[in-house]
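Re: [ENG-882] Designed sequences occasionally contain unexpected residues at chain ends

Forwarding the minimal case from QA. C-alpha cells:
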C-alpha cells in the first residue's frame, strides 16, 4: 500500500495491553490460576510495615482484597530477603518460615505450598509481591515455573511504572483546584472539594494499596472566641488553625475545612503511625492556641474512604467528649 494512503488500523480493545495496574494484576492472577493451579493467587502491597492483598483469585483459603498482616511475619519477607526460595514445595521444611507459619495458623490457615516473586519499582524498591498459596505440599516440578514468575512480575513492574507516572501527572493537574472547591476564609479545600478528592482518589488508593489514614478534627474553642471576642476574632482563630495544620501536613496530603470549626485530612501514613500523628497534630494546635479534638481511622482497600471517614468522625466526637470531661471550661 502506498505510504500516503496508509490508514490507522483499529485494534480490538481486548487485545490492547492493560494500562491500569489493577487491571494487569487481575489478568495475572486469573492467568496463574489457570496455568499453575493453587488454592489462592494474589497480588499484594508492602508498605508501612504491613502486607495487604490488592487482588486475589481464591478457591477456599479466604484470601481477599484487604486481608493482610505484619510484614515481619510474612512468608514473602523471607522470599524477598533471600532466606527462602521463590517456590517452596513444602513450607515445613524451611526453619526460616516458622514465624510466618505460626501467624498463618493463628488465622486458621494451613499453608504447605508457597510460590512468590517480588514486584519492584524502577529504582529497585519493593512495591509488593505476586503470591501463590496451597494447603498441601507441591510437586517438585513446580520449580520449573520460576521463569514464568519472572516474566509476569516484570510485566507488573512495567505497568506499575507507567500507571504511577500517569497518576502523578494527573494529580499535579488536579492540584490547581477551582475556586468552587476552595474555602475562601482559609484557602483549604471546602466540603465540595474534599468530597470530590475522596471520590477521585478512591480508585487510586484501591489500585496501589497505598497506606493512608483519614483524620477528622473539630476546634474546641471557636464558639468561646466568637461569643467573647466577636466573629472577626473567630475568623482569625480559624485561619491560625488552618495555617498550623498546613505547616504540619505532608505536601500532597489533602487538607479541608468542612464548615464551621470542622477540618479533615487524609494522611499518607501507615495505621501504626496514626497515634503519633494525632498526638503531633494536637500538640502543634495546642501550641498555636487553637486546641482541637481529633479522630483517626485507617483506609482499607475493601471498605474504602466512606467507612474510614465515618470511623474517624466517631473517634473525633469520642475524643471531644473526653476532652470536655477533662476540661469543662472548653
Amino acid at each position: 500500500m502506498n505510504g500516503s494512503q496508509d490508514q490507522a488500523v483499529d485494534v480490538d480493545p481486548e487485545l490492547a495491553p492493560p494500562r491500569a495496574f489493577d487491571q494487569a494484576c487481575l489478568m495475572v492472577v486469573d492467568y496463574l490460576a489457570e496455568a499453575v493451579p493453587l488454592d489462592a493467587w494474589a497480588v499484594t502491597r508492602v508498605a508501612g510495615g504491613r502486607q495487604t492483598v490488592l487482588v486475589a483469585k481464591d478457591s477456599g483459603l479466604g484470601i481477599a482484597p484487604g486481608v493482610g498482616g505484619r510484614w515481619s511475619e510474612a512468608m514473602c519477607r523471607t522470599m524477598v530477603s533471600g532466606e527462602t526460595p521463590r517456590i517452596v514445595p513444602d513450607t515445613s521444611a524451611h526453619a526460616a518460615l516458622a514465624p510466618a507459619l505460626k501467624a498463618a495458623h493463628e488465622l486458621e490457615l494451613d499453608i504447605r505450598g508457597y510460590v512468590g516473586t517480588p514486584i519492584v519499582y524502577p529504582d529497585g524498591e519493593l512495591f509488593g509481591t505476586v503470591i501463590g498459596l496451597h494447603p498441601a505440599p507441591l510437586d517438585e516440578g513446580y520449580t520449573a515455573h520460576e521463569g514464568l514468575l519472572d516474566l509476569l512480575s516484570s510485566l507488573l513492574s512495567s505497568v506499575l511504572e507507567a500507571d504511577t507516572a500517569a497518576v502523578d501527572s494527573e494529580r499535579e493537574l488536579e492540584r490547581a483546584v477551582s475556586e468552587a472547591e476552595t474555602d475562601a476564609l482559609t484557602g483549604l479545600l471546602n466540603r465540595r472539594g474534599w468530597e470530590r478528592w475522596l471520590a477521585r482518589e478512591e480508585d487510586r488508593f484501591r489500585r496501589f494499596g497505598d497506606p493512608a489514614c483519614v483524620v477528622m478534627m473539630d476546634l474546641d474553642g471557636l464558639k468561646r472566641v466568637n461569643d467573647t471576642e466577636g466573629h472577626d476574632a473567630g475568623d482569625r482563630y480559624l485561619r491560625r488553625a488552618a495555617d498550623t495544620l498546613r505547616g504540619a501536613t505532608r505536601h500532597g496530603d489533602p487538607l479541608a475545612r468542612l464548615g464551621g470549626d470542622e477540618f479533615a485530612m487524609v494522611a499518607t501514613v501507615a495505621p501504626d503511625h496514626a497515634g503519633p500523628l494525632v498526638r503531633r497534630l494536637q500538640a502543634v494546635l495546642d501550641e498555636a492556641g487553637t486546641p482541637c479534638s481529633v479522630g483517626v481511622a485507617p483506609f482499607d482497600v475493601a471498605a474504602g474512604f466512606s467507612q474510614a471517614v465515618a470511623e474517624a468522625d466517631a473517634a473525633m466526637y469520642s475524643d471531644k467528649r473526653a476532652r470536655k470531661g477533662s476540661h469543662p471550661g472548653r
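QA comment: On inspection the terminal residues look reasonable. The longest helix spans residues 146-174. Proposing we downgrade this to a documentation issue.
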